[in-house]
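From the shared-data thread, chain only:
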Amino acid sequence: MISDEELNAFRVSGEQVRVVRDGIDTNDVIGIVVAWDGEQVLIRRKNRKVVKLGRQYSYQSAEQPRISPLELQ
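Structure, as C-alpha cells:
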C-alpha cells in the first residue's frame, strides 16, 4: 500500500503516476494524484475524468518503465 508521504510527493510535484492494477498494461490508469483517504486515491486522467482507485494497487511514476505486480513478488 502506498504511503501518504509518497502520494503527497506525487501531488505536490504534479508528476503523472501509473496505477498498475493487474498484469495487463492496457488496464493501467495514468494521471495526476488529486486527493486520497485511508482506502482510496483520486486520479485525474488526461481527459479530465476523475477515477477512484484503491490504495492496494501499485503506484509508479509514469515516466519509469512499467513494473508488473507479478514482478514485485
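The mean pLDDT is 92.
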